Amino acid sequence: MTEIQFEKLLELYGDSIFGFCCHLTGERSSAEDLYHDSVMKAITLLARMECEGMTVNELKKARNYVIGIAVRLNRNRRRRKNAAYSLDDEKSAAAVSSECDLIAETEQKEVLYNIKAIIAKLPEKLRIVTYMFYFAEMKEGEIAKQLRIPLGTVKSRLNRARKAIKTGLEEKGYERY
Which of 20, 68, 71, 112 is most buried per CB count within 10 Å? Predict the structure, then answer.
């Protein structure tokens, strides 16, 4: 990948990558740090990033590569700090949502808020795969490649996450979801 292609990548998908970092870290300041570190790491790995042209599909592959870097950097940070990432109460989930500008004003936004709160309480392995699939809009195969796990494992984790989300919504009184 060339520097020009990388600049185009950040122009088109920088907000998307930053949004993913917000979901991953749960707070804006940590997301900013993670985004910066991910971009800097990607710059050092430009030669490894496959991007033959400036097409949307090629740049999307590169975006997924940077998201994979963000996931690994975040995991390493948390291991070093030896601190568990959890959002056990509704107040913390509300702070994350407001931090990422996801204020529930309509019923649909309220459902989305509840879904995100449920996802935030999932175990890390399920949460990361869910974020990558739904929020970063990555395909299962791309997730498997970036996390370096088998495709079947990705599918299994997504299935378990969906069941947990459905159960959580039913407990909150959302029958039709």
Answer: 20
Average pLDDT, stretch 4-26?
A: 86
CA distance 60 to 52: 12
pLDDT tens for 124-147 read 999 999 988 988 888 999 999 999
CB 96 within 8 A of CB 46: no
Q: CATH top-level class for 1-85? A: mainly alpha
pTM: 0.60
Q: Rounded CA gap, 113 and 77, in Å?
A: 27
Give CA separation, 77 vs 23, 80, 150, in Å. Answer: 15, 5, 24
At a CB cut-off of 8 Å and minimum separation 6, what does 89 contact? none
Nearest to 65 by CA among 142, 154, 152: 142
| Residue tagged 């175990």 (tokens) | 123
Overall fold of domain 87-177: Arc Repressor Mutant, subunit A (1.10.10)
